[in-house]
Amino acid sequence: MSALLWVECKRPSGSLREVENQALDAARRCIESDNLLFIYTMTTVGVSFRVWFYERGAASLTPFHGKATFADRTEYVDANSDNAWVLPQCLLMVKEEVPLRSAPTLPSQFLPDFEDEGQNYTETSQQPYDQGNLYSGEPSSSQHTNQQPPESVDNAVAAGVDLQSSQPIRVKVRRETHVFHPDKYIFKDVRGKTRQTVRDEWTQIRYGGKRVWAYHGKRTTYISDIEIA
Length: 229
Hints:
By secondary structure, the chain is α+β, with helices and mostly antiparallel strands. Among the domains are: 5-96, no CATH class; 169-224, no CATH class. The protein contains 4 helices and 13 strands. The strands form 3 sheets. Strands 1, 2, 3, 4 and 5 form a 5-stranded mixed beta sheet that branches. A 5-stranded mixed beta sheet has the order 6-7-13-12-11. The chain has a 3-stranded antiparallel beta sheet with strand order 8-9-10, with no helix packed on it. The radius of gyration is 24 Å and the shape is elongated. The chain starts with a strand and ends in a 5-residue tail after the last strand.
């Protein structure tokens, strides 16, 4: 379990700058401890409140409502006023757009089938590429096998491929843009299940002489048909 919304409270005479700085510090600590991409936070002074959004690495909080100002009492909403409707709206956002965890950073990310003995697909490789083959000159039959173009996910399912195969699968990825947290990249895996991912879960690899974006599942690697930006 991880934190969704952090609340910092002060009495009516409390300092807005202090409560907002405390909320910012708490949001950073929550993100680090739970390995989150973003988190929601709310500051209250007496019965007035303001809801914020904080994204990993940001220098400050981002307000959910009002102007992008800080320690500004005019931007706080009285819980007893008509403007308090923003609170349930913000809480609904917290419920529907749950903070996502950051993908773990692996010490080395590569595709097993893309390597031959003593060779790899790194940026510093000095080997030239010739029509999708790793080596220049005439490739062997084993090299031809490793350099088959990736299947599409529809073809893979229709053909009944081994779902535990490390053969890369090309998928159609749809980008879903968001204002207050990272965009989502959505695609269907080989089992037909919809996967929702974020930018940090994709890595660039070299395949067929080109740089492509890949998502590494537990047993299957997926190659995006669009740029993951």
